[in-house]
Amino acid sequence: MSFETILFTSENHIALIQFNRPRALNALNNQLFDELDQALDQVAADGDLRVLVLTGAGEKAFVAGADIVELSRMTPLQGKNFSRKGQKVFSKIEHLPIPAIAAVNGYALGGGSEAALACDFIYASEKAVFGLPEITLGLIPGFGGTQRLARLVGTNRAREMVFTGKNITAQQAYEFGMVNQVCAPDQLMDTVMKTAGLIASRGRASLRAAKEVILNGGNVDLETGCRIENDAFGLTMSSEDATEGTTAFLEKRKPQFKGTLD
Ligand code: CO8
User: Fold this and answer.
1) Which residue segments constitute the domains of the chain, with CATH numbers given?
2) What is the pTM of this model?
3) What residues of the chain score a pLDDT lower than 70?
4) Is the CB of residue 106 below 6 angstroms from any atom belonging to ligand 1?
5) Is 35 one of the catalytic residues?
6) 130 lines ligand 1 (CB under 6 A)
7) How do beta strands 168-169 and 129-131 pair?
8) Element (H, E) at 6
9) Active site residue: 4, 59, 126, 134, which one?
């Protein structure tokens, strides 16, 4: 299937989705959300994929937010529905059966920061700019940003960013714990693909279990989290990958993971 607002390719177990509306700095409109939704369904259904990388096409932007032109024409109810649509699509990234990495190459404002926050972790170019400037438009973040940012960097840092609408640099985002690694702009994709390649060499079954356990454990007390981990551990023990991984170790060879929990 071909898309107009995103580029979707895959190679060596790694899916790559690029936001691609260069004339609007990759801003998120209805069409983009529909296409991203379809691409994510394809990613989830493809048992050959083990990791997803999300980035922005072009030099300047990851995503410069929701499309303000489209937004300005919406009734309040259409705006509420658009917010819910964005929340659902970003939740789909969060709940994919494989890890997702955001490679933030430029502006990640409003919905752009919210898209990155829905990924499992973020690498950023030194030129990246993060922020939730919705307050400057008389709005608030509506694609899960108030919730995910506060959980990731703490309530008070999130309050300051959301109340002021001020942007932060990649370095500040790193210091806040929002970004795992800051790279020179021309090194970003190589660095991300190296990490993606390492993840892709692991088994899909254990990646899925690890992702789910960390995600689900984040919202419950430690004891409940450990129970969730314990159940998932039992499930991975029964996977082909666990047999292959332990056998390969004992046979002093590299494991060839082919299993799945689907
Ligand atoms: N929407 C639509 N078009 C955009 C957007 C956007 N978010 N951002 C940039 N563009 C367009 C510009 O209008 C411009 O188009 P044109 O050439 O036709 O005039 C083109 O992209 C290039 O942009 P600039 O000329 O402005 O480039 P600069 O380098 O001067 O500035 C900035 C880059 C700083 C990124 C600037 O474009 C900017 O501030 N953009 C808006 C950032 C913003 O406020 N984002 C938040 C949007 S709101 C949001 O994300 C809400 C999410 C929750 C919604 C809930 C649902 C209702």
Assistant:
1) 6-200 (3.90.226.10), 204-250 (1.10.12)
2) 0.96
3) 259-262
4) no
5) no
6) no
7) antiparallel
8) strand 6-11
9) 134
